[in-house]
User: Fold this.
Amino acid sequence: MAIATINPTTGETLRVFDEIGDAEIERKIGLAHERWRSYRSTSFAQRAEWLRASADLMEKDVEELARLMTTEMGKTLDSARAEVRKSANGMRYYAEHAEGFLADEPLADPSVVGASRALGRYQPLGVVLAVMPWNFPLWQVMRFAAPALMAGNVGLLKHASNVPQSAVYLEEVLRRGGFPEGCFQTLLISARKVEPILRDPRVVAATLTGSEPAGRSVAAICGDEVKHTVLELGGSDPYVVMPSADLDAAVATAVRGRVQNNGQSCIAAKRFIVHTDIYDAFAEKFVERMRALRVGDPLDEATEIGPLATEQGRTDVEELVADAVGSGAKVLCGGQRPDRPGWFYPPTVITEITRDMRMFGEEVFGPVASLFRVADIDEALEIANATSFGLGSNAWTNDPVEQDRFIDELYAGQVFINGTTTSYPELPFGGVARSGYGRELSAHGIREFCNLKSVWIG
Assistant:
């Protein structure tokens, strides 16, 4: 894929970037490694000052930055502005809390290990490579960069090839905020250049958010090199609705949960599993609201659904829908690309999904909802867990016993009751099974790229 900004609303190529060569890659890795030697000794207060200044700059750039993201990957202006503010909030969160999260952990009674003093101390690892996706061009990066920089690590960013201007901006805003040159650098490279960087001994760890194949590749290389990784991969999140739920709230949230970011979110609700007692009422309201969503130019403030980010992404969605329909699934709304320029796909609801259809087991990365009818909570849990993924999950019920069962029995990194999965700096974020491993955000996220050193003093 070319490193280029291609407007998904029109298909027009707006700007093309040259891939940097091996000599420039070597220079940037060398700079990062040398910078870490001094940066690791900076104080938490100094790092926090730079990070807060960068957050302030990002918020001042909100309108320009929102239009840039919308033009590069098609999210609506409103959601782009929200992403800018969320990223700045995450930066301030780690500026405030990093020192406490990484404080020494003394053993209450060191005499039990024969010491006068014993503790655990968190120390930065070094140069970390981040391989990031296009769907949240700022937030995906900042939820790595903010804690990593506050911990004393330095970062190299290989961003998705279709958001190069967002990638360049991220390096620039951190430099404008005061971080020394080399603390965070963007690498405008293709995927084929990632392996040599991962194998470079100066690069000590990696984090990837993206597809399962990409995660497998990075994990295999880093496993061979014995390097730490954090992977956040795909998801096919269940959204269960039981009879005791507030139906109108469940429907409204279901629509938002499915079409957030034009349906291109790993943690978007994708499989809607509804108890038979309320299935018909839910389906009617859900389809009506999905059908009514306004699809159009994401730069238009009235638009609710913009285009998919890439032409291949739309093709992938179309193929999954065609496979299901060809095997007997029923389309309740949508299901056909509109006759217009750009990579648009309408909000779609499909029912009568069977286990032999690709859609049952694969992630649909677009505004397509699968609707299932179930007889009871046992069947709901069985279908919810009948996936190779385990990222987020959602359940709507006001029955405390049912809530406890969903919390305990949904196999996922996150369970949201009477809501839909989202990410907060305060809560750990990540998955199980083929959705990856490790955690981002909260105290757990900043500690992922630290050495927890045991200290014993006799």
Q: What stands out?
A: The mean pLDDT is 98. The chain has two domains: 4-232+432-457, 237-417. The chain has 15 helices and 18 strands.
